[in-house]
Amino acid sequence: xxxxxxxxxxxxxxxxxxxxxxxxxxxxxxxxxxxxxxxxxxxxxxxxxxxxxxxxxxxxxxxxxxxxxxxxxxxxxxxxxxxxxxxxxxxxxxxxxxxxxxxxxxxxxxxxxxxxxxxxxxxxxxxxxxxxxxxxxxxxxxxxxxxxxxxxxxxxxxxxxxxxxxxxxxxxxxxxxxxxxxxxxxxxxxxxxxxxxxxxxxxx
Length: 204
Description:
The protein has helices spanning about 10-45, 50-75, 90-110, 110-115, 120-145, 150-175, 175-190, 195-204. By secondary structure, it is mainly alpha-helical. It has one domain. It is elongated and about 60 Å long. The model has no long low-confidence stretch (mean pLDDT about 85).
């Protein structure tokens, strides 16, 4: 979609810079996702639902704090960070215009990855938010409203990432951790209980 806009080269250059910065920063929150997933799985398996809930809250708070710091830095340096990649005045100005959307994406991406690791059916939410809401909204804002690359990015951020974050947050808040811990404990007992038939065969 961006490559079909007027001044496509300029739009793609600016979008690539913003996506690169967002991707670098996102690696921090994917680390929180992995750490939270392991801790939550261990605590659920041990039947400690309160520890599971606490671990999720702590991980979310730390991830959001880091995201907020990077968001503020992006806003403060909105005219300068593009110099890392280019010396083109046109590209730098285009990135400057996109910097506030980038800051919003960074803040949302500090929340969404941690929430993503806590849901078994997040793929369906992801598909719905990005392809049913985000992509059509990006097309409307970018082409019909003639906002160009800003409209495309805005549509994907607000229609996709923001909606997905809200839905996952609601699911997390309403999640019954005690019930999940009971299920996990039952599965752990099932697979850890010795099979009498296997013991007989080993004895023979």
